[in-house]
Amino acid sequence: MKLSFDLFSTQAPANRVIVEFRQCIVAGWAGRDQAAIEHHIEELAALGVPRPSAVPLYYRIAANQLSQDDAPQVVGPHSSGEAEVFVFPVDGRLLVSLASDHTDRKLESVSVALSKQICVKPVAREAWLFDEIATHWDSLILRSWIEEDGGRRVLYQEGALSSLRHPLELIDGCFGPADMPAGAGMTCGTVAAIGGIRPSASFEMELFDPVLDRSIRHAYRTEALPEVA
To answer: CA 196 to CA 194: how far, in whole Å?
Structure first.
């Protein structure tokens, strides 16, 4: 799956990079606070969601599920997005963008892996160089918004990356001492939903850098296909 990114750097003019992804990994249960993770696991278990076999857990997703479409299709009305940092290598450099781990919440109680695999993973069209934000990584902020009550825009997620495992730690945990291979992309965990996880056809997300005062944004609206038996 080929995706195109406008690469913005503090050292050079923006340029376009095209990346052919051959594998996609969703890093789940990627928080730094183990007690908070265990509490969340127990909350989800009470709703019928199976416990993860490991923490963090690396879910493999078909690369063709990555998309920069503004109107992805889903089956039924039960899915919702999650804003996550998206990292990938290009020519020996690690790039940073933004993606949504869109997930089918109804299927999640049967299989977390399948609930993630069944949904397209929307990806932003902009990227930064990891080296330019590495020293202040923890201060970056993830945000997302959904629409409720007939179109009212509601803040759905907001939190600093200091609450999540560092991406280099996640890369090492997935690939070992080898570098992240060309053609791979990984989402790096998410922050809690304000008011609880719930479906919404509209999803807007942002990765904000308060040090360099810049953002990567992406928005999409799902089209729900009929859920037939």
So the answer is: 6
Query: What pLDDT score was predicted for residue 36?
Result: 79
Could you tell me which residues are beta bridge partners of residue 123? 99
Distance CA 149, CA 125 (A): 29
pTM score over 0.70: yes
* Chain-centre distance for alpha carbon 161: 12
Tokens of 148: 């409720």
d(CA 5, CA 95): 10
Contact residues for 92 (Cβ-Cβ < 8 A; gap 6+): none
Options 3.30.1370.10, 3.40.630.30, 3.90.850.10, 3.40.640.10; CATH for 2-225 is 3.90.850.10
Place of tokens 């993770």: 37
Tokens of residue 191, six digits: 């922050």
Residue 61 in this model has a pLDDT that exceeds 90: yes
Look up tokens 């183990």; give the residue. 34
What is d(CA 149, CA 159) in angstroms, rounded to the nearest whole number? 24
Tell me the CB-side half-sphere exposure of residue 65, using CA atoms within 13 A.
Answer: 24
- What value does the mean pLDDT take over residues 77-86? 96
The 3-class secondary structure across 123-173, one letter per residue, is ECCEEEEHHHCHHHHHHCEEEEEEEECCCEEEEEEEEEHHHECCHHHHHHH
pLDDT tens digits, 87-141? 999 999 999 999 999 999 999 889 999 999 999 999 999 999 999 999 999 999 9
- The C-alpha angle with vertex 59 and arms to 55 and 62, in degrees rounded to 5, equals 170
Structure tokens at 72: 């992805």
